[in-house]
Amino acid sequence: MTTGKEYVTAVFEKVKAQNSHEAEFLQAVEEVFDSLIPVFDKYPEYIEENILERLVEPERVLSFRVPWVDDRGQVQVNRGYRVQFSSAIGPYKGGLRFHPSVNQSIIKFLGFEQIFKNSLTGLPIGGGKGGSNFDPKGKSDNEVMRFTQSFMTELQKYIGPDIDVPAGDIGVGGREIGYLFGQYKRLNGYKNGVLTGKGLTYGGSLARTEATGYGAVYFAEQMLKARGEGFAGKTAVVSGSGNVAIYATEKLHALGAKVIAVSDSSGYVYDKEGINLETLKQLKEVERARIVKYTEHHPNAVFTPAGGDSIWTIKADLAFPCATQNELNAADAKALVANGVIAVTEGANMPSTLEAIEIFLEAGVSFGPAKAANAGGVAVSALEMAQNSQRTPWTFEEVDSKLYQIMKAIYTNSAAAAKEFGEEGNLVLGANIAGFLKVAQAMSAQGVV
Ligand code: NDP
């Protein structure tokens, strides 16, 4: 009989051979596969049904041309993607990323992670992801609008409120979602459930903007509780200064912790008095300025440009990587551990390398993996879909309290799965297994599709 290890190894070898040029995708797959070995020992029927090989192959990968005209009248061309990874438990759901680094490997890694994350929320949503190598930085509002209209003109053929429901991610915030929604509506009529992260005047949900950052902090709260600790008096380092980082900072401050550093791709600021949230929001949400400008408002804060000492060399009790993939490597993990970090919570997707995760787990640091800790965003997106379907908006408090309960349940289920499969405290393993089991059961019930 094939063992779990033999099965997982054989499938991974195949995945590597077929996707050898997709480094980020293989990294995400390896992390999940490593966790699933004991599951296949316990449920050999999933080996017979070859669930893993089916799951790791996207149901559909779409790649398309996005031509648009810049402000000088010059025609530009970008590449658009949508990966519809798994609809085993619901319509494809996952964000759109606009960033020059976007390629098929990055969209596939994000889509693959999204399957398990969405399953963990307990809500009926499948996994997908999309985006483009378009860089919104330095573009005028009109250029962003023309690009997003062209992008949606193609994407609209493949999405719909019960088929595939995109949302935001890096480079796609309220402005971009507004333009995308407008173009979808122009081509298909008003269907408010086709996108989430919408503005509050046209079907958006209260607390969606805050959800990923708040949710990550709620998850961290559960990890701290399990160690007999709380936020009061703790210091935190948060990387990034976008949607996730800003609202993680806001909630950390509200719960009594002090965030002492934030960053963007140009560097980081360290403010030992605590990052001033009002300044941060003004610079990032209103002015779209670079983070160095923070020091003009707070002269005691120190700016370190990218390429200098990493943000993770700052001594703090808590770390929240909230910028991008692979932003925290083994050397960073060692520095954090040496400085006595007690909890690391991933607000971004796959921000820690596999080596960094090993270091945290071995050092007994509480480690909240992305697919569990940052699931709050997609969870509230699913709540936005529910409100759209019933045509009734909920209050901020209603949504926030549902978010809190969902994050608590994700922690409890991940911790329970880790314990059941013999690795108590390993939330990486626990989240992967808890997310996988529901999807596997659904796939098994639906036959070979
Ligand atoms: P934003 O675009 O709002 O902010 C991204 C932040 O990360 C910016 O400060 C940006 O700096 C920084 N950043 C991006 N790429 C890099 C890079 N290559 N190197 C260094 N810094 C970088 O995105 P979000 O806050 O929405 O997303 C952040 C992370 O959270 C992503 O991994 C995303 O997938 C994940 N996430 C987001 C969710 C959401 O609801 N928004 C939900 C779940 C996960 P700069 O401006 O200089 O580029």
TrEMBL record:
Cellular component annotations (GO), alphabetically ordered: cytosol
Biological process annotations from GO: glutamate biosynthetic process
Record text on subunit structure and interactions: Homohexamer.
Name the UniProt record assigns to this protein: Glutamate dehydrogenase
Ranges where the Glutamate/phenylalanine/leucine/valine/L-tryptophan dehydrogenase C-terminal domain occurs: 205-447
Site feature location: Important for catalysis: 169
Active site: 129 (proton donor)
Signal peptide: none
PROSITE patterns: GLFV_DEHYDROGENASE (PS00074)
UniProt keyword terms in alphabetical order: NAD, Nucleotide-binding, Oxidoreductase
GO molecular function: glutamate dehydrogenase (NADP+) activity; nucleotide binding
CDD domains reported for this sequence: NAD_bind_2_Glu_DH
Record family assignment: Belongs to the Glu/Leu/Phe/Val dehydrogenases family.
Binding-site list for NAD(+): 212, 243
Organism per entry: Streptococcus pantholopis
NAD is among the record's keywords: yes
Residues annotated to bind substrate: 93, 114, 117, 168, 381
